[in-house]
Write a structure and sequence with these properties.
mainly alpha; 33 helices; 76% helix; globular
Length: 690
């Protein structure tokens, strides 16, 4: 560890890192304070109205984002001065929201001229921050919605609205809880930030290494072992990571070169990593923090969202696992020697304590506790373990260390009885001890760096959530979602399948170049209600748009996750994207199957469940989904123990498609085609053996 006065720079995220010198140290400590502020508000150590917390959250985001981007990408003093001007404006807006909190409430709907000026400044700052840190795509989309608010009355029917004054639009978008400070930024300032911090601490504590060693030990010796390791380790890391693209950059540094050395094509290696990393966004418990937004939006318990996501997520990773297995068989790629691999059991035995916070987090989330409480406890336990691991090294080996861990465990368990204060007191004691013990100051530096890195990692997501508030505000002000929804419903009356295709294309188009969370918020706001009107269960309709929003990061021409993998794989991002779509086949299949048979997402409804019962319907649709995914893998890879020609691959693809459709007679036709395919393959194999 380096001296605290010159903190080490965390890994770059979205091309942004802390600059050197006094400016870098200032921004570093701003990031640390930002994280401490968010922890304090989450644990109610700092009690402020929600509106002020949201305003401060956006203020911190802009204060960090502009200078970090300017110093990372521009050398000129002019651009840096402009960046500091935007950062100061963002802070001024936050302070105005705090200072005028009560007066703003009293004059809601009747803004003063100064309110409108501040509102315009806040919009400009948020748009500029989003453009600076993640590109032009999201600002263009949000700008289109904002323009619709201002000028939509001049459009022809049915696209027009009754018209809204400039002051009314600005007031709606920048004050209250309908625009910038709406549900997205509320969730960002609570759940999302906490879980990003949680992931940051776990990564620095060695969680990536633990996941990788376990995956290597379990699957490294098997056929295609390197790619299977990538699927498992990236999937596991994705469960606690807030960003699929960031996951590609971190775990991909190890898995992609490993797959290439193993013999996989660079494009395929990059595609596997991108697919597995993005898949972490659909895997409970965290789901890239979308689970919490979805629960908040639908006003359902978190456990209901996890329940709907569980089987599809498992099928997604089994599909990726199956396809890399077939690809390895096709190219004769065998596993690594066992003596070259770490032991999964030894890795868990040495680092089992890292799994404790994750286990407690899952227990609390499934036990009905709020995500905010669960995230606070999970983060507190992680910090406690990191500090405790350092403190125990100063004790003699043997019974004293055992007693220490038992005592620490009992103290930590006290949160169930006495709340978070127990954890904070224990952490404070360990921090005090670390300042005077051998290695303790290095551990404190690690915790400090995790706080800064977590705040920096939260920048693109937080700023995107603020800007997406403009889109949500447009929907609530103008009712624009109804126009699109009515169109989908009209198409759906003639063909549900066509309306699903239209919705899928819309989600992929809107999702290109946009992070997971704002992607889901946009698509669920626009397309979700339309699917609900067509009779699709509420959670299933939101999962449908969520899945295709995720797949937008794998789909050309933008394919963010694939282009993030490109420099590591040393291959074209577009070529990686083509391979990723093959590996991510389940992601395209499962949402359609769940619409026709909601039992796949453990939801009531659908003719099958009404006919044969709920659990038989679950078993049937899971079997059918697995069969369809298996056939798709055979079709795209062209291997099943031997090379398969195009006629057999086409037969497998048609059989897979008919099993997905769930229309009258398609299941029967699908099973008949499966039987035909199996028969031809079996006869062909018999001839080869003979």
């Amino acid at each position: 560890m380096t001296n605290p006065a010159t903190p080490p720079l965390p890994t770059e995220v979205h091309g942004v890192s802390f600059p050197q010198g006094n400016i870098g140290r200032f921004l570093f400590w701003v990031a640390v304070v930002f994280s401490l502020f968010q922890i304090g508000t989450a644990a109610h150590v700092i009690d402020l109205p929600s509106q002020i917390v949201r305003a401060f959250h956006v203020g911190f985001l802009t204060l960090l984002a502009f200078p970090l981007v300017a110093y990372a990408r521009y050398d000129g003093a002019t651009m840096r001065a402009v960046a500091w001007g935007f950062a100061a404006a963002g802070v001024a807006v936050a302070l105005y929201q705090w200072w005028e909190y009560k007066p703003l409430i009293l004059r809601a709907g009747r803004p003063l001229d100064i309110d409108i000026v501040i509102g315009v400044v806040s919009l400009v700052v948020v748009f500029a921050a989003a453009w600076a840190i993640m590109g032009i795509a999201l600002p263009i989309i949000a700008g289109g919605f904002l323009a619709y608010c201002l000028f939509g009355e001049y459009l022809p029917a049915p696209l027009n609205h009754r018209g809204y004054g400039f002051g009314q639009v600005i007031d709606h978008m920048t004050f209250g809880t309908e625009g910038i400070y709406g549900i997205p930024i509320y969730v960002s300032s609570t759940y999302i930030f906490l879980f990003i911090l949680f992931g940051s601490f776990l990564e620095r504590a060695g969680m990536i290494r633990l996941f990788t060693d376990v995956a290597m030990g379990l699957f490294g010796h098997r056929q295609g072992g390197a790619a299977k390791v990538a699927v498992v380790s990236s999937g596991l890391m994705g469960t606690i990571s807030g960003s699929g693209v960031a996951n590609v950059v971190t775990t991909g540094q190890f898995t992609i070169p490993l797959m290439k050395r193993f013999g996989y094509r660079p494009a395929f290696a990059g595609g596997v990593e991108a697919t597995a990393s993005m898949g972490g966004q659909i895997m409970p418990p965290v789901m890239g923090a979308v689970a919490f937004i979805m629960a908040e939006t639908l006003d359902v318990q978190y456990i209901e969202v996890v329940r709907a996501a569980l089987i599809p997520a498992i099928l997604y990773f089994l599909s990726a696992f199956w396809i890399v297995h077939l690809e390895a068989g096709r190219h004769g790629l065998r596993g690594l020697a066992r003596d070259e691999l770490p032991s999964a059991l030894d890795a868990i035995r040495k680092n089992w304590m890292l799994l404790v916070p994750l286990g407690v987090l899952v227990y609390l989330l499934f036990g009905g506790y709020t995500p905010l409480f669960a995230g606070t406890i999970g983060l507190g336990l992680t910090i406690l373990l990191i500090l405790g691991g350092s403190a125990v090294l100063n004790l003699p080996e043997g019974i004293f260390r055992i007693i220490f861990w038992i005592a620490l465990g009992l103290v930590a368990a006290g949160f169930l009885q006495w709340g978070t204060n127990v954890l904070f007191i224990a952490i404070a004691v360990l921090i005090a001890a670390s300042t005077i013990t051998h290695g303790g100051r290095d551990t404190l530096a690690l915790c400090r760096d995790s706080l800064a890195e977590g705040a920096k990692t939260a920048l693109p997501v937080g700023i995107a959530c603020a800007l997406v508030g403009v889109i949500i505000g447009t929907m609530t002000l103008t009712g624009a979602a109804n126009t699109f929804g009515q169109f989908i419903v009209t198409v759906g009356k003639a063909s549900l399948f066509l309306s699903l295709i239209l919705t899928m294309l819309t989600c992929i188009l809107l999702g290109m170049g946009i992070p997971t969370i704002p992607n889901y918020i946009i698509t669920s706001t626009i397309a979700g209600p339309a699917l609900l009107a067509l009779g699709v269960p509420l959670i299933v309709s939101h999962m449908f748009v969520f899945y295709f929003g995720i797949l937008a990061d794998l789909t050309p021409p933008v394919a963010l996750a694939c282009f993030a993998a490109a420099p590591i794989a040393k291959e074209s991002g577009l070529k990686i994207s083509v391979e990723a779509i093959k590996v991510a086949a389940a992601g395209f299949v499962i949402p359609f199957m769940a619409v026709y048979t909601p039992a796949l997402m453990l939801q009531d409804g659908g003719p099958l469940a009404e006919t044969i019962g709920f659990w038989p319907a679950v078993a049937y649709v899971v079997f059918k989904a697995g069969l369809s995914i298996g056939l798709w893998g055979i079709a795209v890879i062209g291997w099943l123990g031997r090379p398969l020609g195009w006629p057999l691959r086409a037969l497998a693809m048609v059989a897979a498609f008919t099993l997905v459709a769930a229309l009258p007679m398609t299941d029967q036709a699908g099973f008949a085609l499966v039987a035909l395919f199996v028969g031809i393959v079996w006869v062909g194999r018999r001839k080869i053996i003979a």
